[in-house]
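queue> pop job 88
queue> type: inverse folding (structure -> sequence)
queue> payload:
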């Protein structure tokens, strides 16, 4: 277990499958790009970094501003969109909880109100009206309205995939997955990686994911591979009452708390320990560091179990299947980042082969490790792990 703990701290969570760490997500739409100076000004105005009691007063005073001209309406609408996107981006990049903070939610609600008051409603307004609900499916019609106005918008399509997944509307889900694929919303390496994640799943597994670039490709791959036995649980989606209700119907016991954070995940895993839980590497270390004694490397996930376990055989099977996978053959910069996530399972194999005095296999695994470490710039981490 000491060996696995070391891998957990020094390798897995410096790898870059985390959707927000690979390329920080900035969910914007249309003309909502925020320049550096403007972002700094907005942060100071909203006091996001260091909230002060007077912030609520500021918001109240601004909401009382009377919009007189059409130009002012457009300016109010545009600024509200930029503010909404800034705060939502900050919320999405929070590695401590998936829900917006109380202050963030207040600013999101206020920005939406300003959009509505401007009477200059467009795609951004309807998309924001859906997103402000944090996967509240009663607001789905706003998202569908946004889609009707711009059916090629990648963010809208992505959110529709998530909504229909939450509602288990398979007909609409499959259609939107097709649009997601044809629209090149995610790079092919993410789908190749998701395929290898699925290869390492147990039968009737519960796979916990985090972030867009992990979750949405997994939704597609699980559908394509007809892995109906697998239940994919995305931490963001757990904000949805409909999603939690569907999980309860499937026999999952849910913690009695609304904030989706490390305590929630730990409680969920302990309450459902018999559900073959596997945690994707995209889940930030803050969520799992208090469960490390119950985590075992299995493929591209951590298996959660309360029993001591030897995972050599499972990782051997995984390696034999994926060693010629498209992701490991790819030489793209993204694939080289993702390759580092294969190192923990390979180190498990190396340790097992050393124990068996299987020199041929040790050399084979070492060659793979060296190649991956070079491509992913993880030589130092590999050397530390080998010393341990």
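queue> result:
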């Amino acid at each position: 277990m000491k060996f696995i703990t070391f891998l957990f701290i020094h390798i897995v969570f410096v790898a870059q499958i985390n959707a927000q760490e690979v390329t920080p997500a900035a969910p914007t739409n249309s003309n909502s790009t925020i320049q550096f100076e403007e972002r700094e000004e907005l942060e100071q105005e909203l006091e996001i970094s260091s909230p002060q009691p007077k912030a609520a007063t500021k918001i109240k005073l601004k909401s009382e501003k009377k919009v007189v001209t059409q130009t002012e309406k457009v300016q109010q609408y545009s600024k509200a969109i930029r503010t909404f996107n800034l705060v939502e981006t900050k919320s999405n990049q929070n590695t401590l909880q998936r829900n917006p903070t109380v202050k963030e939610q207040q600013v999101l609600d206020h920005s939406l109100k300003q959009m509505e008051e401007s009477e200059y409603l467009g795609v951004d307004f309807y998309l924001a009206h859906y997103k402000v609900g944090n996967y509240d499916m009663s607001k789905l019609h706003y998202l569908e309205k946004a889609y009707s106005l711009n059916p090629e918008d990648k963010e809208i399509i992505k959110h529709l995939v998530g909504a229909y997944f939450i509602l288990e509307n398979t007909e609409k889900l499959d259609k939107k997955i097709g649009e997601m694929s044809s629209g090149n919303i995610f790079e092919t390496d993410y789908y190749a990686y998701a395929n290898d994640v699925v290869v390492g799943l147990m039968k009737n597994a519960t796979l916990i994911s985090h972030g867009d670039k992990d979750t949405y490709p997994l939704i597609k791959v699980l559908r394509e591979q007809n892995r109906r036995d697998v239940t994919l649980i995305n931490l963001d989606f757990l904000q949805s009452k409909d999603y939690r209700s569907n999980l309860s119907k499937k026999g999952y016991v849910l913690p009695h708390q609304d904030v989706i954070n490390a305590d929630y995940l730990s409680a969920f895993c302990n309450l459902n320990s018999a559900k073959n839980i596997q945690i994707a590497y995209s889940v930030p270390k803050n969520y799992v560091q208090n469960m490390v004694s119950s985590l075992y490397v299995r493929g591209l996930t951590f298996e959660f179990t309360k029993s001591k376990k030897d995972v050599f055989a499972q990782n051997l099977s995984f390696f034999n299947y994926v060693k010629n996978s498209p992701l490991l053959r790819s030489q793209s910069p993204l694939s080289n980042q993702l390759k580092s996530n294969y190192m923990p399972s390979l180190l498990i194999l190396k340790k097992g082969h050393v124990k068996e005095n299987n020199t041929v296999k040790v050399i084979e695994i070492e060659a793979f490790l060296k190649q991956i470490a070079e491509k992913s710039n993880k030589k130092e981490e590999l050397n530390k792990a080998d010393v341990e």
